[in-house]
Amino acid sequence: MNTHRYSSRLSLRLLCEDEVAMGPGKADLLDAIRTSGSISGAARAMNMSYRRAWLLVDVMNRCFREPLVHSAAGGQRGGGAQVTLAGERVLALYRDMEAAARMAARPKLEALMAQLKD
Asked: Can you give the pTM of this predicted structure?
């Protein structure tokens, strides 16, 4: 297999009409919100603007039956954000789906990559 020049990456996206409800970036953002306790902290950790992170959270919250992230506005006591129970469930399902897809695709990916030029 030609691993010195080529690599493969399997990426799954769940669409909600014409928007991505969940994908690798949004899953990473949920992980970062869980770790940092805020959308702004997650955005900084991911080298992303706060506005971009907020828009991604907004899409996720609109696409799913229950919000995946609950945020509180800043102020004297500070704001913050937390991944909701629904968000934890969606994230776990998505990560499980990613792992299952990688395992299922591995033999075909290896066979496909073996066809690449040296």
From this structure: 0.86
Count of domains observed in the chain = 1
The pLDDT tens digits for 3-54 are: 457 778 889 999 999 999 999 999 999 999 999 999 999 999 999 999 999 9
Q: How far apart are CA 106 and CA 10, in angstroms?
A: 10
The CATH number assigned to the domain holding 87 equals 1.10.10.10
Q: Where are the alpha helices (DSSP H) in the chain?
A: 24-36, 39-45, 50-63, 85-113
Token reading at 92: 């776990």
Identify whether the C-beta of residue 73 lies closer than 8 Å to the C-beta of residue 79.
Answer: yes
Q: Is residue 5 situated within a structural domain?
A: no
Phi-psi region of 51 (alpha: psi -120 to 50; beta: other; left: phi over 0): alpha
